Every structure is written in C-alpha cells, then in structure tokens.
Amino acid sequence: ARITPITPTLKSETILPRFLLQPDICLANSLLLASFHRCQKSYFATKSINQNDDDDKINGNRKTSLPPPLPLHPRHRVHLLFGANTDVGKSIVSSGLLGAASLAAKRDSTISQTKLNYIKPLQCGGSDESFVYSHNTNNSEKVFVTENNNGKPGDGLIKGHTLFTWQTPASPHLASRLESYPVSDDEVLSSLRKCWNQIVIDAEEGEKKSTTIIETAGGVLSPSSSSPLNHQTNRSLSSSGSRSGMPNSTPKWKWSTQADLYSSLQIPVVFVGDPKLGGISVTLASLEALWSRGYHVDAVVFIEAAKTNSENDREGDIHFGEGNTEALREYIAMKSLRTGKKLIAQDSIVCLPELPPMPIPLNEWYESNEGSFLALHDLLW
C-alpha cells in the first residue's frame, strides 16, 4: 500500500539529504525528517548562543550582575543630590541641608549622638567640600572637619569626603582624559561604598545617627569620569577628540551618565531644579530621566534666579524660580493623577529666595533661610 507523502515546512537554512526530499516518501522517512529538523533547530540555537559569547569577548564586554544597592539603615539617612544642570546651586543646598541637620541636632539635644557627612565622588576644579566647610563654621554647633585634616580623620560634627579630584574645571569625562587620570565606574562605586560603610561603622560604634549628602557632578545626564575599563557606557568621543582638546591616544575611554552611574545604589534623591527662563523643560526632563532609572525623588529645591536690570522689557519683574516651582507642582499633580503614583509631596517642592550678588558672602542668606532648610530637613527624615 502506498502512503500519501507528508511534505514538511522547511526553513531557509535547513539542509537535508537528497533522498528525504523525493516525492515517494515513506512514513518512516517522514519521522526521520522531523527528528532531523529538531536536531538542526537545537544546533542553530546553540550556535547563536556561542556566537553571542564570542561577540562579547571580541568587543570586550563583561557579563556582570548588577551590583547590590547601598545598604540603608534607619538611623543613617543618606541622599543623592542631583541638579538639573551645572551652577543651579547643588553645593548651596548641600551646605544648607547639613547646616540644618546640625541645628536640628542642637534643637533636639542630640549633637553628641549625631554625625554629618558630605561626600563629593567626582570633583573637577575648585572644591565644593571647601565651600560647604566655609558655610558651616560660623558657630560651635557647625563644626566641619575634612577627612584629610592633618592627615587624619577628624572628630568634627560634619566630615567631608572628596573621593576623586581633577584640576581641570570641566566635565569629569574630559578632565580625566586631559589629565590622563582615568577612573572607572566600578572604582567610583567601590570607593563610595567603602566610604559609606565606614560612616555607618563609625556611627554605630558610638551609638550615633548620621546624615549624609552625596553631591553629584553637573546635571542628571552629565558624564562621569572616563576610563578604558568602562564597558557599559555612552558612545565615547573619538574622531572629534583633537578639536575638543582631548588626546587622540584615548579614543576608547568611555563614560556613563551621572544618573546611570549611581542608579544601582538605590539611594533617594534631593533634586535642585533650574530656576531660570527655560528651566521648566530642563527640570522636567531631568526628573523623568531619574524616574525612568528607578530613582525615588524625595524633594525638589529651586533657588530664585537673579533678576535682570533691563528697562526695555518686563523680565526683571518676573520671578522665574517661583514660576518654575509652581509649574512643577502642577505637573506632579497631573502626572500623579494620571499614573496613580505619588511622586513628590507638594510641600517637598520649595523655592528659596534669590542669592545676593557676588562677592557678597552667603552667611546672612543662610541665616535668613534656616527655617526653610530646617523644614526640609524634617520632611526628609
């Protein structure tokens, strides 16, 4: 008896012996054909996996699991301080929050049980740590001691930690190349974890609580430091290096954004918004970038922009900082209603008064805004 042949559906890459394709095919050959096809499918799947592994080796990619989050403790508050851009007042807010924490410790009679820490992982030109120091030495309750004071850690209420420093006042990805001082993402995170663990150990030994501010560099998506060891990064600049003043010998030095660099730590955020004209878009885009990476934003601070002296227009009469603050509150309310998520509490979005013009010191400005910083400190705790 003749059996009606079974005609299988063949993929384009299937290669079969000729006798299996003849019209008069028996049932046994049909079963053999199905078995052959399953084996070939398994072969191509294995080959694809091996090819991906080979590609990873060729491209220098390392398959690593995500690092664990920073271990948080109920008695030790820590916040990442991000800004919408450079020069929006991150160090000013950092200094104000640490000053408020020291005043709160005095108010609650817990100064002897409190440790405050300022960490600047990446510093390019100048010293934000010195700025924080200069505005927290006005009275005996605000004692700031740098980690390298006389070569030994200090015992002051506020302690500063600058982890990596470049002299060039530029973005870390550029400064690290110009000075031939690469620092990889892993080195930054390892140093930061070591610093944080020591903070917790020191505080626990004295049965104290601590407040720590970790201030980032530039804006949310500003580059971190460059290194040939970085493997998951944005595209590095190569052919345009000479025009930017970067050495052509480092075309493979890569970098991550600030938001990507610290995302694995899962630390809550205090965000400094852009108070200038056009700052609403920059602020919202920065916040969306943080949320998309899993950050939780606890508070947003604006510092009112300096007013113009123009007599030909009305810009000098507009408080853009207050306007941007109100716009953000409206946006958060609409987005929370649309998504059903509570993003940022309305009273955690604040606008501080305009800074005095340079070179007037900020001492009086800080004193006049102690209440605002204390209120924000209490909200964050």
Protein model, in words:
The structure is a single chain. The protein has helices spanning 27-59, 90-107, 128-134, 172-178, 185-205, 241-244, 258-262, 279-292, 320-339, 363-368, 370-380, and strands spanning 76-83, 114-124, 144-146, 158-166, 209-215, 269-272, 297-303, 349-352. With 381 residues, the protein is α/β, with parallel strands linked by helices. It has an 8-stranded parallel beta sheet with strand order 3-4-2-5-1-6-7-8, with helices on both faces. α2 (90-107) runs parallel beside α3 (128-134), α2 packs across α11 and α8 packs parallel to α9 (320-339). The chain starts with 26 loop residues before the first helix and ends with a helix.
Helix content: 25-40%
Could you describe the largest sheet, including whether it forms a barrel? 8 strands, parallel
What is the typical, i.e. mean, pLDDT?
79
Give the strand tally: 8
Order of helices and strands: HEHEHEEHHEHHEHEHEHH
Secondary structural class: alpha/beta
Q: What is the spatial order of strands in the main beta sheet?
A: 3-4-2-5-1-6-7-8
Quote the beta fraction.
5-15%
Low-confidence stretches: 6-14, 43-64, 139-143, 145-155, 233-244
Radius of gyration: 29 Å
> Termini distance?
86 Å
Shape: globular
Counted by DSSP, the helix tally is: 11
